[in-house]
Amino acid sequence: MRMEKSGNTARGLLDQPWVPVEISNTLFLVKVSFGNTAYQLLISDLDFVWYESVDTNTLEQRAQELNRRLKASVVSFFQQLCAIAQPKLEGHEETDSAATFSCERVQDGLTLHMKSELAGVPFYWRFSCSPASVRVICQHLVHPFLAISRFLQEQTLELGTLLKRKDDEIQDYKENGAVLSRDRLKTELFQQQAFNKLFFLKKLPEICAVQDCRGFTREIQELYVAVTTMGSRQKRKHEDSEDTSTQVSQEVSKSISTQAEQAQKMPFEHLAEEKCKEEEGGTQSPLTNDTRKEMTMATATQASSQPTARPKKKSAKGLFR
């Protein structure tokens, strides 16, 4: 059987929404991602955030440890776990009325206990969550909610602009003789700053008074999923672009290095080739012994009558001519 690593569900976990789930009279925000034989779980009570990542090996070991009377494959165990736990942890109605969930805090961690039945035999599972790292918290809470805040701010500005245009349209109707048939529909001109100030005074205390998970409505969940999905898509696109850029850069560097090596060898090879051609193609007129003797004596006489000078180097032929 091919082992599934929990990392394969990491991207799926990011795209899941936070949903309110009540366990042992405690309301949590939960997000979970189930793979084939692996899962990842994030759970928070708004004071702490806990995390668990389970791969196939851990799943098999824990299933055997908690259910010694059951003999089944890891796939069968996982299917039973998904059938019972997934609806509960995703905020849906429980499909197995016989299943019970409880939680307890163990030092800094959080343990969720699940009890059900499989083929008439008790079936147990334990979610052993440890404190989430700062990176996980930023990835699943801080970054998405900052993006949501920016989105809602832009949406508010767009709505304010739309209301201003509506006011201008109504004013144009009035100037052309239109009359409102029902006084109760009459509204004041929209002033963005005045509206924001009044809204903060009225709504901010009410919103801040609700310090639990119930405010995470379906609309916010959908917006959260949209933000994280778009972020994942852009991140993958950026990573693909970086990989392509790195590959091109490596190919260019390799090409430049090859050309540089060839350029270093070319002058010497060219000089050697020119010298060979010169030796093969060059001819000298034959000299007699007397002629050589006279030339030697004349050269010696000339050298003795002139001061000694350093011999000049012959200019190289070929590329450096």
Overall helicity: 40-55%
- In N-to-C order, the SSE pattern is HEEEEHHEEEHHHH
Provide the spatial order of strands within the biggest beta sheet. 1-2-3-4-7-6-5
Question: Which stretches are poorly predicted, pLDDT < 50 over at least 5 residues?
Answer: 282-288, 314-321
**Global Rg:** 42 Å
**SS strand fraction:** 15-25%
User: What is the distance, rounded to the nearest whole angstrom, between the alpha carbons of the first and last residues?
Assistant: 73 Å
Count of alpha/pi helices: 7
Tally of DSSP β-strands: 7
How would you classify the helix and strand content by structural class?
alpha+beta
CATH fold descriptor of the domain at 6-135: Dna Repair Protein Xrcc4, Chain: A, domain 1
CATH architecture of the domain at 6-135: Beta Complex
Major β-sheet, in short? 7 strands, antiparallel
Description:
Among the domains are: about 5-135, DNA double-strand break repair and VJ recombination XRCC4, N-terminal (Dna Repair Protein Xrcc4, Chain: A, domain 1), CATH 2.170.210.10; about 140-180 and about 185-235. Helix content is about 55%, strand content about 15%. The protein has helices at about 10-15, 55-65, 75-90, 135-175, 190-210, 220-280, 290-305, and strands spanning about 20-25, 25-35, 40-45, 50-55, 100-105, 110-120, 120-130. A 7-stranded antiparallel β-sheet has the order 1-2-3-4-7-6-5. The longest helix is centred in the last third of the chain and has 64 residues, at about 220-280. About 15% of the residues are buried.
